[in-house]
Amino acid sequence: MTVTERGTATAEGSSHSTNNVRVSQFSPLPTPGEILAEMPAGDVLEYRIERARQEIRAILDGVDRRLLVVVGPCSIHDVDAGREYAARLAELAEKHREHLLIVMRTYFEKPRTTVGWKGLINDPELDGSHNIAAGLRAARQFLLDVGELGLPTATEFLEPISPQYVADLVSWGAIGARTTESQIHRQLVSGLSMPVGFKNGTDGGVQVAIDACQASAAPQAFLGIDDDGRASLVATRGNQDAHLILRGGSDGPNYSEQAVGAASAKMAAAGANPRVVVDASHANSGKDHERQSVVIGELAERIAAGDTEIAGLMAESFLEPGAQKFTPGQDDAADLVRGQSITDKCMGWGPTEDALQLLADAVARGR
Ligand SMILES: O=C[C@H](O)[C@H](O)COP(=O)(O)O
Ligand SMILES: C=C(OP(=O)(O)O)C(=O)O
């Protein structure tokens, strides 16, 4: 069959010309099994990851009275700077371990409002070459390196296939505001091995995240891939550790005592975990990195005063404050400022240290 310029089909030749009309390339990737065999976790790290997941569960359930703090860069684009950040954070995690369980944001997949760099897995060379095989290995190596420091890791799961390559090294997961309503992501969470938080929607709607917690707590059956990369029916048991992350929305922030109380009550009424994680960044800070310290200060006061609804807190932080504009294919990665975000603005290192001290003191007083 041939298609004329005006788009009318004539009957001759290939029977496949209606397929993949807009696909320019298929490049097979190594299978999850191959990458895991090449870069195994090892017994010690597996033990640490399982222990961190249990501790996070205990915090979410209110059994462990510490505060979960998920903190780190908006995205990992420079693994060397990311490792330096991880080494500094590991010291603070140890220092505050009595009051805080610090988990590093190791985000390799970025959901974009329209277009932009989609993260280390998608484009590790930051030049639009999309070397996903190298990206999967880079992300896995980074998780192994951070794990070696004894620091648990957190990530957003954006694609349904990528978790097969990295999820064994992750202690806490998130589903972002743009995908919480997606059935694909809810099904994925139902089979993930770690506690996972669902963010409220970008419009501020909390109900989508409550629905997501219920859907992911249930067993699900869906299409996925197995360790050999074969399309498979995936049947899951359901994830009982799904919870809510309040990140604010286009209708404003939602970290006030009243907003957290209302969301927590709705979760309880739905039979879901009423203890929530509050994101000090995104719409709760109006994407202003300096405002994150203000939000954390207010939350710390409430924790010191005995709040029981806040199980955890999220902040975006890197070595340098703010963010720099970067468009793959247009900007040169060699010109980037080391340790500064190329996605959302982050708190710098100094304010991060101060914020963690403030939170540790608040927990010491209030819990
Ligand atoms: O932290 C994440 C960003 O806010 C999200 O990926 C959207 O980014 P964008 O609006 O710059 O595309
Ligand atoms: C993308 C993120 O957040 P949100 O989904 O809240 O925009 C993020 O935490 O990196």
Automatic annotation (TrEMBL):
Please provide one cellular component term from the Gene Ontology annotations of this protein. Answer: cytoplasm
Query: A single Pfam family, by name?
Result: DAHP_synth_1
- Give the GO terms filed under biological process for this record: amino acid biosynthetic process; aromatic amino acid family biosynthetic process; chorismate biosynthetic process
Enumerate the catalysed reactions: D-erythrose 4-phosphate + phosphoenolpyruvate + H2O = 7-phospho-2-dehydro-3-deoxy-D-arabino-heptonate + phosphate
For this UniProt record, the keywords arranged alphabetically read as follows: Amino-acid biosynthesis, Aromatic amino acid biosynthesis, Transferase
What's the EC number here?
Answer: 2.5.1.54
Q: Which EC class is the enzyme in?
A: transferase
Q: What sequence ranges are listed for the domain DAHP synthetase I/KDSA?
A: 58-354
Cite the InterPro entries for this sequence. Aldolase_TIM, DAHP1/KDSA, DAHP_synth_1
Keyword Nucleotide-binding in annotation: no
Q: Which domain of life is it from?
A: Bacteria
Q: Which Gene3D superfamilies match?
A: Aldolase class I (3.20.20.70)
What is its pathway? Metabolic intermediate biosynthesis; chorismate biosynthesis; chorismate from D-erythrose 4-phosphate and phosphoenolpyruvate: step 1/7
Q: Which segments carry the region annotation Disordered?
A: 1-25
Tell me the GO molecular function terms. 3-deoxy-7-phosphoheptulonate synthase activity
Q: What is its biological role?
A: Stereospecific condensation of phosphoenolpyruvate (PEP) and D-erythrose-4-phosphate (E4P) giving rise to 3-deoxy-D-arabino-heptulosonate-7-phosphate (DAHP).
Q: Which family does it belong to?
A: Belongs to the class-I DAHP synthase family.
Q: What is this protein called?
A: Phospho-2-dehydro-3-deoxyheptonate aldolase
Q: Which organism is it from?
A: Zhihengliuella halotolerans
